[in-house]
Amino acid sequence: MNTEILHSQLVQELAQEIEFQPVDGRIAVTMPLEYPDGDSVVLCMSERPDGLELTDYGESLGLALARGGVKPRNVRLAAEQICRALGVTFADGRVTALTSEEEFASVVWRISLASARIADATTFQAPERRRESAFADEVEQALRKKQVKLEREPQLEGLSGHLAMEVGRDAEDERGEGHLP
C-alpha cells in the first residue's frame, strides 16, 4: 500500500469538490461537506483591509433552528461550543473568521466543519416536549380549593385481575370521588 498515492488521490478528489464563484462582489466557496438537507456547505469570502473574511451568513444556525422543537438558546450555546473547539467565531448567528491567504485553507476547512456541525446539532435531539399536564394541574388546583376529593392517574383492577390506568372519567365514581388523567 502506497500512502503517498492514496493521499494524492484523496487531495485530488477533494479539490474537485471545492468551487469558487463570484457573487455580488464576494466569492462563494462551495465545500465538499453537506448540511442535513443535502445542500452543500457554501461560505462567503470577502476581502478586507486586514485579511479575508469568511462566513456562513447564518445558514447553519437557520437550518438547526428550522428543525423545530428545540430551544434556540440551547442551539446557540452548542454553536458557540462547536466554534470555540474549531478556533472560529460564532457571532450574531453566523460562523465567521478573519484569515490571511497563508492560513486560508485551514480556516476555510474549520469554518465549513463548524457550519456543518451546527446545522447537524439538532438532528438527534429530541424535540422539546410541551407540558401537557399543565391544564390538568390547573383543574386539580381549582377542584382542591373547592375540597373535591381527587386521585391522579388511579390504577384500576379489571375483571381479569389485571391492573390498568384509567384514561379519564367525567363523572364521579360510586365513592363520590372524581379522577383526573
Structural features, described:
The protein is α+β, with helices and mostly antiparallel strands and 181 residues long. It has 5 helices and 10 strands, in the order αββββααββααββββ. The strands form 3 sheets. Strands 1-2-3-4-6-5 form a 6-stranded antiparallel beta sheet. A two-stranded parallel ribbon has the order 7-10. Strands 8-9 form a two-stranded antiparallel sheet. Strand 3 (40-48) and strand 4 form a beta hairpin. Helix 2 (59-66) runs parallel beside helix 4. The chain is elongated. The model has no long low-confidence stretch (mean pLDDT 84).
Q: How is the secondary structure organized here?
A:
Blueprint lengths: L2 H15 L1 E5 L2 E9 L5 E9 L2 E5 L3 H8 L5 H15 L2 E3 L2 E6 L4 H17 L13 H12 L4 E3 L2 E3 L5 E3 L12 E3 L1
Parallel strand pairs: 7-10
Antiparallel strand pairs: 1-2, 2-3, 3-4, 4-6, 5-6, 8-9
